[in-house]
Design goal:
single chain, 276 residues, Rossmann fold, ten-stranded mixed sheet, elongated, Universal stress protein, UspA, Universal_stress_UspA, Rossmann-like_a/b/a_fold
């Protein structure tokens, strides 16, 4: 992990994200790319006359405010690149990530405590669904960024193998212990223990060529996938929950409906998404 992007809107929650990113940057000797997007109307971006001067004026004001915002004691010793863009939508964060070859995006969110839930029309949703790199969502002031125990929600389908391998690579470098959680539901998607175990064997055989990590799989029966993931993560004492996504196409079939969004909404733990 060499470069971490943090979108900043000067809110309390974006500072939570900045603090978390700073801790990760120090642990990994990474560079922080602090991004502020000055949202402007189409008229300002395409208008003639004095519009260019107005754009320059607002950009200068944003840069000045941004510079003041980044004067934090916890950022000392970290390489920081401030970036101010006049993007109109947060989905364009992915373009910045590709341009700078970033490894991770860190964002703050208020979850269900605010007027709207985390994933309903929020900027964080737009970033998560468009991002081609992992997105870490935090909702409070993290005292530490020690992800000693990581819980990965997994249905053991072949399309989630890449997510598992990427996550394994990222967190093995942090000496984290990873557990995979499978939720069995009491409906038409119910599977017997033998059926699930066969899927797990096939998953690890294709992913790693061995079954060394079979003991790290936790099966749980619950009424909803969301409850199963959250309850299992708490039981494991996890510091982080990982959820695979299909980006713009919606969540993986394992997370039918709004399960992935609900996990991110209701988890008190940080949640990281990996695009399938």
């Amino acid at each position: 992990m060499k470069k971490i992007i943090v979108p900043i809107d000067f809110s309390e929650y974006s500072e939570y994200a900045l603090k978390a990113a700073a801790k990760l940057a120090k642990k990994n000797n990474a560079e922080l790319l602090a991004l502020h997007m000055l949202e402007m109307s189409d008229i300002m971006l395409t208008g003639a006359g004095e519009q260019p001067q107005k754009i320059i004026y607002f950009l200068k004001l944003a840069e000045q405010k941004f510079e003041e915002f980044l004067k934090k004691d916890y950022l000392e010793g970290i390489s920081i690149t401030p970036i101010v863009k006049h993007f109109k939508v947060f989905s364009e964060v992915n373009e910045v990530a590709k341009k700078y070859d970033a490894d991770l995006i860190v964002m703050g969110s208020h979850g269900v405590s605010g007027a709207k839930e985390f994933f309903i029309g929020s900027n964080t949703e737009r970033v998560v669904r468009s991002s081609e790199i992992p997105v870490l969502v935090v909702k409070n002031d993290m005292l530490e960024a020690n992800f000693d125990i990581v819980a990965i929600a997994c249905d053991f389908s072949e399309e989630t193998i890449e997510t598992y391998l990427k996550a394994s690579n990222m967190f093995s470098n942090m000496d984290s212990k990873m557990y995979l959680i499978h939720v069995n539901l009491p409906n038409d998607r119910f599977k017997s223990s033998i059926e699930i175990e066969n899927e797990v064997v096939n998953f690890f055989t294709k992913a790693e060529g061995n079954l060394n990590n079979m003991s790290d799989v936790h099966y749980v029966s619950d009424y909803t996938v969301e409850d199963g993931i959250l309850n299992s993560a708490n039981k494991l004492g996890a510091d982080l929950i990982i959820v695979p996504t299909h980006g713009r196409k919606g969540l993986a079939h394992f997370f039918q409906g709004s399960v992935g969004e609900d996990v991110a909404n209701h988890a008190t733990l940080p949640v990281m998404t990996f695009k399938i």
